[in-house]
Design a protein that fits this description.
By secondary structure, this protein is an all-alpha fold. It has two domains: 53 residues; 83 residues. The protein has five helices and two strands. The protein has a two-stranded antiparallel sheet with strand order 1-2. A hairpin with a 2-residue loop joins strand 1 and strand 2. Helix 1 runs antiparallel to helix 2 and helix 3 runs antiparallel to helix 5. It is flat and about 55 Å long. The two termini are 30 Å apart.
Length: 137
């Protein structure tokens, strides 16, 4: 899933960064992004295979860090990408009487941050319950 999100983010950055690119350039970039996606996929799959050799304490912190990174990625997308980079495109859409890009820049990033606090609290509680009797084997 992370690999697909990275690929999607790179495609969006390419398309908005170079909107007048020649079709041949688009094909070359698509091949390069596909290669990067395959390498990232291989990296994540190889990490899954090595999880058998790590302790419960290391797995707990790995799960915790992955949760933090997911929350930071969502917050980055909402506050920076939607609120700054894509603001002109999102301003074409109205939300509650306001332009959507303006709303993300002023309110959406704050609401998302508060939501992420509750989401993190809920998910870390589940991770804590999963590793409640934390004893290394």
């Amino acid at each position: 899933m992370i690999v697909h999100l990275v690929w999607l983010l790179l495609v969006i950055l390419w398309n908005f960064g170079f909107p007048n690119a020649h079709p041949l350039s688009d094909v070359v970039v698509a091949i390069i992004l596909s290669y990067i996606s395959n390498k990232l996929s291989y990296y994540f799959i190889s990490n899954i295979n090595t999880e058998k050799n790590i302790t419960k304490n290391e797995q707990y912190w790995k799960d915790n860090i992955q949760l933090i990174l997911r929350c930071l990625l969502i917050w980055f997308l909402v506050s920076y990408v939607f609120g700054i980079i894509l603001v002109q495109e999102l301003n074409l859409i109205r939300f509650g009487g306001y332009k959507l890009g303006f709303w993300f820049a002023q309110q959406g990033s704050i609401f998302t941050f508060v939501f992420l606090i509750f989401y993190y609290s809920f998910k870390i509680g589940k991770i804590d319950d999963k590793y409640k009797n934390l004893k290394d084997e």
